[in-house]
Amino acid sequence: MKTILKTEEVLKLILSYWLSLQLEFQWWTFLVWLIAPDISILAYAINTRVGAWIYNAFHHQGLAIVAGLAGVYAQSRELEFAGILMFGHSSMDRALGYGLKYPDNFKNTHLGWIGKKQSNF
Fold first, then answer.
1. Which residues have a Cβ under 8 Å from the Cβ of 70 and sit 6 or more positions away?
2. Contact by Cβ (8 Å): 71, 82
């Protein structure tokens, strides 16, 4: 099952790249901006609760779709691209095992713990 889910996320990433090409941006634009949503990690400097909330907003596939559709409605290629980029980035993260964050710890995600869980020794 894990392989099927990762494959699905990779296919969504490929779809996102293809959609960005349909907006007639240069082929490399998507690749350059692909890690931009990770700037949201800076919110963890405030605290883990705020950090998780901001990080999840930039990595939520539903919000990415809403942003993309808002771009279609507003006839804004840039907003469409931002939604597509967010969707592709979150798919890439999930294919690599990184998920939406719980507010207690950055490594605690909806896909499980990132890396080895710390012991309480």
1. 76, 79, 83
2. yes
Identity of the amino acid at 70: A
One-letter amino acid at 21 equals: L
State residue 112's pLDDT score. 85
Helix (H) or strand (E) holding 40: none
The DSSP element (H or E) to which 46 belongs, if any, is: none
DSSP type of residue 28: T
Which tokens hold the place of 98? 């990184």
Helix (H, G, I), strand (E, B) or coil at 39: helix
In the chain, alpha helices (H): 2-22, 29-33, 48-59, 61-74, 77-95
Going by their DSSP bridges, the two strands 105-109 and 112-113 should be labelled as: antiparallel
Domain boundary assignment for the chain: 2-109
pTM assigned to the model:
0.89
Dist. CA 86–CA 84, nearest whole Å: 6
Q: What is the pLDDT of residues 4-55, one digit of tens each?
A: 999 999 999 999 999 999 999 999 999 999 999 999 999 999 999 999 999 9
